[in-house]
Amino acid sequence: MTIELSAGLRPSTASAVRLRLDALPENVMLVRQALDGAARGIGASSDVIDDLKLAVTEACSNVVKYAYRGASGELVVSFEPLEDGFIVFVQDSGSWLNRGSDEDAAGGLGIPLMEAVTRDLEIGSNGQGTTVRLEFALIRSDIGESAESDDA
Amino acid sequence: MPDRVSDEEIVDVSIADPRLASAVLERLVSAAAARAEFPVDRVVNALTVVDALIHGTDSVLGDKSREIRMTIAKGRVGLRVDSLVDGQAEAIRDAAHLPDVGDILERTASTVTIERDGAKSALVIVLD
User: Fold this and answer.
1) Identity of the residue in A15, A22, A34 whose CB atom sits nearest the CB atom of B9
2) How high is the ipTM of this complex?
3) pTM score, whole prediction
4) Which among A17, A32, A73, B122 could bridge A79 via Cys, Cβ 3.0 to 4.6 Å?
């Protein structure tokens, strides 16, 4: 996990799917639905889609709850396929990453949970906003490992 | 893009990979119809509109990006296909015509209009 906004922590200008919507609780469901469709469209397994929805809900919830501190603001979500997986970027124009002692934001369970279900997680923040980069494999690799250990 | 009506929610959707348009839009519009508190027959109509729109945009836009603004209010869902040029809005609308059935968009949506702004145009579909 990184804190500074690196060059790789930005979606490409032509993401396969991009949603731009208000950072409201009810819109998190729309993001989940859209990404479910996009991930299925490139052949992601059901387990991975479950992980995707869990992680994206966490990322979007941070934006909704903390990024704009009660003011209105925008949530931008981008989906980019890879050869063996896909990347989701969750962006805002606010700030929630460095809330330190706030148990529900950066210091809570959200980030460890996102780390646990992604192949790679990066989070960056600068003066213009915060970006969460979530990378997933198309098929969850621990399924095979689990089956092997069960056989042993 | 037009200004927001005060009671409506706006979702701007950009789909650069046309293979994903159907799966993404179906789910988004289903969720929007649920939030708009549509009865089941209007949900079916909304999904029929999506099918027709996907068919039309596939045949007219090919690999080009789809720029769609979805608006949601109680009892109303709008779909605005934006950034169209050179008769593309008319072509997408006309692609929804089936022999012996008629114009799918006209029959399932409440209104289907084409808005023009200089060289650009938009196909605007409202279900309410």
Assistant:
1) A22
2) 0.91
3) 0.88
4) A17
